[in-house]
Prior knowledge:
Strand content: 5-15%
Oligomer: single chain
Number of helices: 11
Number of strands: 5
Shape: globular
Mean pLDDT: 82
Radius of gyration: 22 Å
CATH class of the largest domain: Alpha Beta
Amino acid sequence: GLGASSEKLSNTEMYPSFYRTVPSDKNLAEAVVLLLNKFGWNWIATVGSDDEYGRGAQGLFLSIAGNHSICIAFEGLIPTDFADPKAKNQLEDTIKLINKTKVNIIVLFAFSQPAQALLEHSISMGLSEKVWIGTEAWMLSDTATSIPNIQSIGTVLGFVMKAGTVPGFRKYVSDLFTSVQQDEFCQESREFNHLMNSDTLDTHCKQCDPISLHDVSSALSHSQIQPVYVAVYSVAYALH
């Protein structure tokens, strides 16, 4: 789940059977502090999304940063419910306050939607270029990276999970593409799903047909694949 990195889940009394397949947010917070120390950045702003992930990761970061002579010029939370009429004002107020502090470094702990909203407002309000430190929760999001004029926000540094190789995964996907391109596979698949009328059997997926193995090859080494593999393997091993 999206909150699987929460440090709360490390409490073995409350969650005796929880098995972690991704690093805890504590690891993330420690890594961010090490990065700030490396570059001597000790006057910063930190923003989190107002949800369990954002509050939790930011809280851990603040507790660790305080022990490493890092001054927090501004700390704030941004909304996750954009239907709320107050959301726009909250985002604008956050950017105004960041601007007042004259910080050049912003650490952002948020999922892609709140991060996207903050970045869009930063661009529209003319916030000067900053160094944004982020996590894959928003950094690897297509929606965030495709914001118009996104290059004007400055420099983005971030952390992604260390990925391992999932044995046989590339070959599996390659074989799957080969078989999907054969009509017999599609016919069998549709029949298996009991879609038996002739109109459906002759229908091709216009979005899927042009996709080739080359189009998805970059995603095959994505860091989120290994944790899924580890989780499935763990369940299978436990059942065995």
